[in-house]
Write a structure and sequence with these properties.
single chain; alpha/beta; Rossmann fold; 2 domains; 8-stranded mixed β-sheet; 6-stranded parallel β-sheet; globular
């Protein structure tokens, strides 16, 4: 089957899109991927079998204003819609696989016009994610966004447009519950394909022994992933004075900064608390280094603050930690709490309570058998249940049945 994927971000890298593409290619499908253009990569290239076509930003003030106007009020990007239509025709596409809610309406009419199925792959509850992202913006930007593109309009789009697609893919059962309950989508229309890891692929990535040696002898706490206010890492920093009182050779690694303003805020907080020498703030790393940093860690964290967003999604990092047999400490966001309690691979905490976080660290630090049990349970569960080979089969089955 010839599948056109649409992603409004620069590709590579998007771990989920890469894994899905690889799974579908292995089944003999052809993958064409429309993605954003960053001015550096080629406009077209073949990446591990995926034909990547990058869409340049429109030129001219009028065209940019037109694009903005159409999207703001109609949720359609005219320039992208034109490219979707052109490539459906050019490559005789048999299905459109669109990533994230914001691009669904842009792709819907071209697919319907050609009478080919359209699949909406929803990486997260986008309206609620948008609410969280906007909450960290300066007041004027929050106000203008609320006036021009209020959350209620996004929710109305979500309820309406998802009725018109053929299938919906979400990342967690709680996400499926949201679409069935809140958007009135028929249950059999929603497929859960989780953000689990491809064990064979992930385990093949080489470990950098020089980095391991750097942290030898320290008790390492690690968070890897996007870092913003709603990720809960501030509480990890606030817990560090308490942790260091009992574990003097403890280091906290915070990996994944993209927002310089928020980074500066957290650096200043660590200095104010007198723990800056025990915390490393590391900018975004190459994915190939992720296994190394997990390997050297004693405890790994997912402290995401509970919200309608985090209660309906799940991050890759949880399963990456579990793959390497690491005990985890997670927030009480609904999916995180459910999986940790099911797998018995770590401790759930209130992410606003840094004393509770410190106590969880002490509990694992002081009981080596418990730490080993948590790590072993996590690894066992990803081998038996939460792994990409199982999730990939769900995706493959979807396409076999949608032909």
């Amino acid at each position: 089957m010839r599948i056109l994927m649409v992603l409004d971000k620069v590709y590579p890298h998007d771990i989920r899109v890469e894994k899905e593409s690889r799974a579908l290619l292995n089944e003999g499908n052809e993958i064409y991927l429309l993605s954003a253009y960053d001015g550096e990569k080629l406009e077209e290239e073949n990446i591990k079998g995926v034909k990547v076509i990058r869409i340049k930003p429109v030129k001219g003030v009028f065209n940019r204003f037109k694009n903005w106007l159409y999207f703001t009020f109609l949720f359609i990007y005219p320039s992208w819609r034109k490219e979707v239509e052109k490539n459906i025709e050019k490559y005789n596409i048999e299905a459109v696989h669109v990533h994230d809610l914001k691009m669904v309406k842009t792709c819907l009419k071209p697919a319907l016009d050609k009478n080919i199925p359209i699949i909406a792959d929803l990486h997260e509850n986008f309206p609620e994610a948008l609410r969280v992202w906007r909450s960290t913006r300066p007041f004027i930007r929050r106000l203008s966004a609320s006036l021009v593109s209020p959350i209620w309009r996004w929710k109305r789009l979500e309820r309406g447009i998802l009725q018109k697609v053929d299938k919906i893919i979400t990342v967690i059962e709680e996400g499926k519950d949201h679409y069935v309950r809140d958007c009135k989508i028929k249950e059999n229309k929603v497929i859960v394909v989780m953000n689990t890891e491809d064990l064979e692929y992930f385990n093949k990535i080489e470990i950098d022994n020089k980095i391991l040696e750097k942290y030898k002898g320290d008790f390492i706490l690690t968070y890897i992933g996007g870092i913003a206010k709603h990720r809960g890492v501030e509480s990890l920093i606030r817990a560090m004075p308490l942790i260091l009182n009992k574990i003097s050779k403890c280091r906290l690694l915070l990996i994944g900064f993209e927002d310089k303003h928020y980074l500066d805020k957290l650096v200043n907080l660590s200095k104010k608390l007198g723990v800056s020498d025990s915390i490393e703030f590391i900018e975004w790393i190459n994915f190939k280094l992720v296994p190394t940093y997990i390997s050297l860690s004693d405890i790994c964290f997912v402290p995401h603050l509970p919200s309608e967003h985090t209660n309906t999604t799940i991050p890759h990092k949880l399963f990456q930690y579990m793959t390497f047999g690491k005990p985890v400490i997670v927030s009480d966001a609904v999916p995180l709490k459910r999986i940790i309690e099911e797998c018995q691979c770590g401790i759930t905490v209130n992410p606003y309570n840094y004393r509770e976080i410190a106590e969880a660290v002490f509990k694992i630090y002081s009981d080596k058998k418990l730490a080993e049990d948590y790590g072993r349970n996590g690894r066992k569960t990803v081998e038996e249940k939460y792994n990409w080979s199982i999730e990939a089969n769900k995706l493959i089955s979807l396409y076999k049945n949608i032909r």
